[in-house]
Amino acid sequence: MHIVLSSLVAHIRAGRLRLLVWAVIVVAVVFTAIAVLTFAVVPSADRWTDVGAVFTGGAFVFACIATVVALVAYQQSLRRPRLVLEAKDGIVPRDAEKPWRLGLTLRNNGEVAARFVAVRVTLENAEFKRVLEGEAWHLGSDSHVLQWEGGGDTIIHPQWEHKVPTIYARVTLSDQATKVPATVEVVADGIRTVTDRFVAYVEET
Questions:
Q1: Which residue segment(s) compose the domain that 165 sits in?
Q2: Is 177:100 a contact under the CB 8 Å cutoff?
């Protein structure tokens, strides 16, 4: 349903832009025709005065249309992606040699596509010991931080979901830790940082 509504809104906006273009063409044709008729019919003494008045009116109308076009363009420029994060954290193994899987999904609830998406995960009460699969994730500023950068190849269209590569890593827990709070930050081109927190629980001994 959201996809249908989004598509309908996009078509309506595209129709408005086409309507403005046609309005400019029609106004140009009408004022040109009036100027030609005025030049042909009006006596020579008043001809240039009347033609000047016609073109002055046409310039005012074009200025009004240009203002409307600028407002529409400004409204389009304000549209932004709106990313929502979903985390599937599972259970953190107490044994540092066993891997922990963390799945993240991003959904774009905005009206335009999200590009250059990146994600940073920061753990409390635990440190990333080693990333086991692939090179999608890499350590950040310290061992508590893991980062993924989607780059230009990652595009999340409006009302679409994108699964971030699964974190598959070994984690070292602080002494007696029973849960691992985590902060997830998501950035993309043209939006403010989206921050979410969740708690992953440590397996019982």
A1: 83-202
A2: no
